């Protein structure tokens, strides 16, 4: 075996989590993520223990750890132990609490349970990679996460182990082979800061690798004509850019919808189809060549200008709409990255800004109130109500340093620098927004009493409309379960649902007073209750699905499945999980279609925490396949064809 022939334990030796006492901030930030170079956020606190295991013993030569991009508490320090046998860390771990490199170096050589090494990430990239002086043959690996670059918890973006099969070559090879291995294995570990290297990236590569380039710096050719690329490679082959570009050069097709690239520069529809060369040397420092360089000298000159910050800046931005207006919502000004300074920092305007994103639930919840605010304030000449999509536009952290969204703030009119503005911290009612603007604006002020009265009436109408919308959606969803076969006892409910649906197609045209809307909602609740809609819908939706109410019913059902020689298919769901609710009718239908092969059951993860923990449920919905009393397969996510295939794979 060649000395450079490393293997990545994460992908080739089944590296997995055996035990972890750090918890997670949310299910989507599971500790398993960091073995896939994805974000893990722990619960509050530090000094967590993470025990990992490979499928078989191997020779450990390289260790890598880093924090996630743009997290507040990226990992700073971790201790490492390696052993052929399971590590009972509970017996000694606490004696190493709060250890850092200085304390580790002070340990005597014969100190009990001395760690193999102490990893400390750098403050710029929150990354640490080391090649062991003496490789270690092991199957169990313990990381003790002791410190973060921040306070509160520890965030880990990636942990990777590499080496060779047990008994392999122990010669040192440096870090470069590990970087190449990570690229070949399509796992985004490194910041890729070395120079003089050309990377060919196409649509088959993970966008996360592209994102690493874009976040940490380098030169990029975005090209649709390969014959134009070769001449510019010479600048890198000759190492002419040593010290000027943080990375190397990456070349990829401008039409490729790579995740990282799209996140940084926008979708293909917003890009030119001609080749261009641009450089990034860190977040908020992207530059574009005004004309495409045609020689090594021009490439180097552009890199120098970008490195010094004198080249033409590039900023990811939406196309600016006509008159900066939102055509669907009068009074709302649409702000893009390119129009931010002109519209938000306008010295004559008090600009109230809503920083939002399409995927953000709280943003959507406050959206109608912001839209009503725009309509309410459009006659105030020195107040501008703005919305800024932070996914479609690059965010200037010097103006918007806050990490969360929705980020609501006002930039008062001022001839001097507006700085970061004033963030709104109150309740999200229309009257409160009006009061906040009035208090913090400068220049001539509007009549607060009149606007507050108008806002209160508008808020009452908004509240009633939201209730009406929720009732319309609720009734429609429950009636959809019956498809075309709606029971005659539900005819009045169906008529009401149809009326509500028609009304909500044009809410601005509803002339009813809030009190009248409340009466209509009460009538709908009354009719639905009289017709027993909830129970009928639940019975129709679940069909043959059995509700597991406790551990005893689970054991009984497991035994029944064994006795009947059937699989037990369990849906772990939550009442707040949209995909769970949407998939429920399909799961019920499957319980009838596949009743000869399996029993179908449901577990509410909030009501049955013990069962959820037993199955180590990390996200919802999760489907577990139990055969002969043991789990034999699982599927995360609502995928009917995938679940059908899994059931077929394990059927008797």
From TrEMBL:
Residues annotated as signal peptide = none
One example of a Gene Ontology biological process annotation: response to endoplasmic reticulum stress
Q: Which GO terms describe its cellular component?
A: endoplasmic reticulum
Which Pfam families does this chain map to? Thioredoxin (PF00085)
Q: So what family is this one in?
A: Belongs to the protein disulfide isomerase family.
InterPro entries this protein is in?
Thioredoxin-like_sf, Thioredoxin_CS, Thioredoxin_domain
Domain named Thioredoxin is located at 314-442, 522-652
Species of origin: Chromera velia CCMP2878
Q: What is the protein name stated in its UniProt record?
A: Thioredoxin domain-containing protein
Record-level Gene Ontology MF annotations: protein disulfide isomerase activity
